[in-house]
Amino acid sequence: MSNWFTKLQSIGKALMLPIAVLPAAALLLRLGAPDVLNIPFITKAGGAVFDNLALIFSIGIGVGLAKDNNGAAGLAGAIGYLILTSALKTIDETLNMSVLAGIVSGIEAGILYNRYHTTKLPEYLGFFGGRRFVLIVTAAVSIILAAIFGVIWGPCQTFIHAVGEWIIGAGALGTFVYGVLNRLLIPVGLHHILNSFIWFVFGEYTNPVTGAVATGDLNRFFAGDPTAGMFMAGFFPMMMFGMPAVALAMYHAAKPENRAKIGGMLASVAFTAFLTGITEPIEFMFMFLAPALYAVHAVLTGLCLAVTYSFGVLDGFGFSAGFIDYVIDWGLATKPEMILVIGVGVFALYYGIFSWAIRQFDIPTIGRYDEDMPVSSEKVTMSELSEQVLAALGGKENLEEISNCATRLRCTVKDVNKMDLERVKKVNGVRGAFATGNAVQVVIGTNAEHVANEIIAQS
Fold it and tell me: What are the positions of the active site (predicted)?
């Protein structure tokens, strides 16, 4: 089970690489739109990413899954995708795997790269060994996959379409269930897998002018589907208003003499949530201290999605539901002003519930007890943070693999007994940490990539 969990984590991490290009693409798409700057070539530049999203996923996931993030895995992913989709069309032109074809090809390429990139062939075939061999194997496996999917994808396509139609047709209930599951999967880092289906697979929209087909809530939103955005709009009130309210509740629940020490940090993570929609640094502050309270947060997130949908609010984002995306996508949204109105109520609800719960159940959130305060209130440098995290993980000898997503390190350690998870959590600059078997996640914040790179350089 632990092995499967680690594999799912690695897929979730790999999904973040192609998703990372979406903010830039969405920005170009919106800036060039007629209701903004009205510069068609800028819109086309952004649209090029969304038009080729499946290919980008095949490349990005391949690189993300490769142990050394080598570009050969990305090239293998692209080759796999082109062979798979072309062969499928030959078998049955009605088959359309959309972004899933890119995800499957990327996973295939990453797995094959890790297994065969060091393969040695006889001397007379030596040129085709190593990473070049990965490309050959990927092409061969893709042909086999095309034959398999050519038989099974028809029923699968019908089933996925039916599931997507049910979720979309379920209205407020569908958005509520998705919102709850989205937050519940955050602790184990598997929410990206759920999101990939909701954002890029479920639902279909055909552009009446160009005839281009877009699938998934995010894809359809930026393609101009007037019904898209129901699975994204509700995150804006939660991220822009709910999470800052949680930070304020923690601040007021802390001892008066500790508030000056924690105020700057809480203000920073609250502003990050409001501006960019990155909420994990706040969520990890109470996620494991009070799992029941986190479950309440998940339910509140589902309610945010259900309420915004019930009010007819539709909105979307290229990265996350922060103020930046809110402003950029105002022209595409339906009733975006209602998000501010709902947000005020969400702020009050979150602040009231968290303030009451922290005091009522004596939850040891930051600043409540002196022993939970950081050893030093001085801000550590990036190098110091990296060194301390590495040491707490058992040193470079104990580190088998390390990578990162937007806000957290994803590590695999050789011996869990050589790692001190409590010491990891107490490192100044770490927002939270947990382990499942040998798989460890350390929440850093937006500097996670820099910390990961420094640890890799040290190890």
Answer: 405
